[in-house]
Amino acid sequence: MLLTEIFEPEYIKIGIEAEDKDEAFEELADALCQASRLNIREEVLEAIRERERKMSTGIQKGIAIPHGKTGAVDRVRAFLGISRRGIDYDALDGEPVYLLFMIIAPQTDTEKHLRILKRLAELLQNPQFFTDLAAQTDPVSAAGVIKKYENILTAID
Question: Which structural domain range is residue 72 located in?
Fold first, then answer.
């Protein structure tokens, strides 16, 4: 249950207001800092931007997974933003992004960081997961969708 542990309702925002990638990074970093009560905004932004300079994390239609590592966290932190309008993200497919799964890991925890990215990739192979998650109107129901699909994967494993 990797994703259910990090994408709890307080780490989900429906109705991201950002219009472009950099605004989205700032909005998600601010939301993560507020939810976790950590003052690590600049470190989060630097980690995400550093990773983004290598290649866009807009990975498939409507989905981005901005992620990075920093010494400012002692465990993996995450925040899910859902946009209704779509965000100009410079995604690999050129399409707007609606779901942003931001993941920040400690410098020393590569294994868990990769396991989370792998689990997320597994869920995203199911197009119904995207559809169901994007349709949610509140953080509790969005967390419920993540739990539902992760339980399905766990049953298959």
Answer: 2-156
- Phi then psi for residue 11, to 5 deg, are -110, 30
Chunked into runs of 10 residues, the chain (157 residues) has average pLDDT values of 88 95 96 95 96 86 92 93 92 86 91 88 92 95 95 79
We report the CATH number of the domain holding residue 31 as 3.40.930.10
Positions marked catalytic: 67
Q: In terms of pTM, does the model score above 0.85?
A: yes
Number of domains making up the chain: 1
Q: Where are the alpha helices (DSSP H) in the chain?
A: 2-6, 21-36, 41-54, 110-124, 127-134, 139-156
